[in-house]
Amino acid sequence: xxxxxxxxxxxxxxxxxxxxxxxxxxxxxxxxxxxxxxxxxxxxxxxxxxxxxxxxxxxxxxxxxxxxxxxxxxxxxxxxxxxxxxxxxxxxxxxxxxxxxxxxxxxxxxxxxxxxxxxxxxxxxxxxxxxxxxxxxxxxxxxxxxxxxxxxxxxxxxxxxxxxxxxxxxxxxxxxxxxxxxxxxxxxxxxxxxxxxxxxxxxxxxxxxxxxxxxxxxxxxxxxxxxxx
Length: 229
Hints:
Largest sheet: 4 strands, antiparallel
Helix content: 25-40%
Strand order of the largest sheet: 6-7-8-9
Number of helices: 7
Shape: globular
Distance between the termini: 33 Å
Structural class: alpha+beta
């Protein structure tokens, strides 16, 4: 039997859930899968592979269908850093002339925003308790084709609605009731739900540079979903 190379393990604390997780670097077979997803350029393929790699590299301890997007981003970034190197190189394009610019990054340059977000939204006597979106919610929201699809994603991120008199828990059987609730909201109250999504925790870094070719100032948002494979 061929002797196996021992794979090191590391530990991290997920920034949102505060859960402590052990992980290993990804293996060659997982790196191949990441490269295939990168070549396909399909957002659904990218999301699926990120989930699969994080779940495998955390020994199945992280349920990637339930953790919020920011925790998944952070876990993937840390795994990638220990797998390929914590110093990363990325090519950024000028938005004006498309000139290419090489930039060096460190895994530690990326921080999760809005960690203190409040997941309860007050609407008069009614309180809406939200969950943080998963990667599936995020992908669905950015790939929807109509307004009804957007409302469907919003409804799935409601955990419960309650007042002093009653509590309404979200379940697969009451989706239509939640959609009716959203459609019946005054615009000022619905905007509170939209703001919740706009301000949800995310891991990214805004990179600013001046193009060496055309001298145009640029700011590019770099994140683990679209830039690091």
